[in-house]
Amino acid sequence: MATQNGPAAPIMNGNMTPSGARGSSSSSENEKEKIPDPEKASAPASAPGPPPFKPPPGMAPADFPDGGLTAWSVCAGAFCCLFASFGWITCIGVFQSYYQTHQLSNYSPSAVAWIPSFEIFMMQVWAPVFGKVFDGYGPRGLLLFGTFFHIFGLMMTSLGTEYYQLFLAQAVCSGMGASALFYAGTNSLLTWFFKKRALATGIAASGASLGGVIMPIMINRLIPRIGFGWTMRAVAFLLLGLLIIANFTVKSRLPHSPRPWKFTDFVVPLKEPKFLFLALGSFFFFWGLFLPINFIVLYGRHFGMSESLANYQLPILNAGSVFGRIIPGYLGDRYGRFNVTIATTFFSTILVLALWIPATGNAPIIVFSVLYGFASGAFVAIVAALVAQVSDIRQIGLRNGTNFFVISWAALTGNPIAGAIINHENGGYQGLQIFCGVIIFVGGLFFIASRHVQVGWGWKKC
Asked: What is the value of pTM for the model shown?
């Protein structure tokens, strides 16, 4: 019988002799002639099977280097990109507390929260555009564009004294540049790794965690000594040095060719249930993700934590996420990226509802910061690998862009909603904590739904 992979194998007779071979006795030949071949009767020998599927050049799992000097150099460059972009985003809680007590002391917490929230929004909302640019042209232009606007925005922030100046420079200009850097580094890295994809993205994402450790300490220590303006310039020069390295090391493995821009290209992935549920899970998770990050410093002060120790809560949280981005990435490659994401998402829910709500002393707040940094960091590290798992790698920029565009609306509204809840409770935090825990839990349910569409309910690597 002709099979999908080629012509049918010869049928073996009772003496383990191929039925197509000549027998040594005439009786066996007569017997062979009398017994029809059922497989040949059901499928004509002249009907060739379809040719075996061959993935496009460079797309097969064996074509991904999964290591080597060039691949790990790209990983190092992506590490620098994420240090400068997402690492900067994860330390914006410092500015929520600083602006409320300095330049913007006459504004409500909800109004101040629009600056970091819009910066996170700008980081995500440009994803479809920069993703499409990456698919068509590669990362080079994005790296140059992002380096200029991110550094220029920080330099202009150093001069800002009014609300609109800080909003335009930090939230809009710097946020747009950081977005280009993030997607250039992340999308390029995905083209070099397959079996070790979650580990590689976790290592790169640990750059964001390290940035979230170093920069808050740097900012809090330098502002009293050299002032806000020169502190921002010092941070900008640090990031510029890292981005020079990124511009020389980040590259894509795939050939890129421009294609016409169609709005429907960004909508098509959402018609796939596995991608739609992943995008919804990402939305709800990110809706709650930054609430502890943005308010942990103010929360510590609210319950009597000293100024210096409260300022260290954000670096402590980000230090926990360094391990949370590498270890779950390794486990994701081994046991399934969706499996690990679901586990860490529900762990985050438990931490918020069972540990953060009753935490009013220094020790439990610090323990929460460490554990939440670990649990929440896992999804940040693996999210791009999850998108790649349900996508054609040649469209990784577009599909990553669609997912992060959905996320952007959660990033835009999360912190202002939290600020409004705090105002409604006259400075209390329990409503914010319940809101955070519930929406992270809902995100976990959507991740389960996406996994179910792919492999069902049983225990399987996914």
From this structure: 0.74
